[in-house]
Every structure is written in C-alpha cells, then in structure tokens.
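Please decode residue identities from the backbone states below.
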C-alpha cells in the first residue's frame, strides 16, 4: 500500500472518529472503503459516458421520430 497524508476539515475528522468508534472499524478502514466506493462509481460513470460517445460517433442514435414513438408507446406526450 502507498501511504497518503492530507488535511481534512475538523468536522469531518470528528465525524470519522465517531463513526470509527461506533462501528468498531479503524478510521483508515472507513476512509479506504469510502474511497473505493467513490472510485468505482466514478469509473463506472466515465465508462458509460465513453460508451455513449462511441455510439454517437458510430451514428447509433435514435431519430426524433423513434423517440416520439417511444414516448407515445409509454403513454407520455413528447410535446
């Protein structure tokens, strides 16, 4: 593992300490868990955006008529 050191606001440090105490986990464990979840979520979102841009560049998009037909099928109004 690579060590990191950075300042955090006092209120966050207090919340982290309280959560560590209440859950029986170390502060390091909680920070690593939060970072892991954040990185997974952000990576997923970036990959979805990249996939969408590839589809757009390939011309794989719905026409206005196709979108309107789907709205009508679902009982919504496109206007």
């Amino acid at each position: 593992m690579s060590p990191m050191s950075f300042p955090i606001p006092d209120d966050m440090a207090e919340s982290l300490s309280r959560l560590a105490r209440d859950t029986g986990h170390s502060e390091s464990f909680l920070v690593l868990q939060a970072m892991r979840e954040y990185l997974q979520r952000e990576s997923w979102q970036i990959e979805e955006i990249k996939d969408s841009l590839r589809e757009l560049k390939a011309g794989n998009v719905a026409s206005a008529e196709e979108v309107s037909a789907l709205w009508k099928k679902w009982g919504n109004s496109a206007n």
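Observation: The helical segments are 10-23, 27-57, 64-73.
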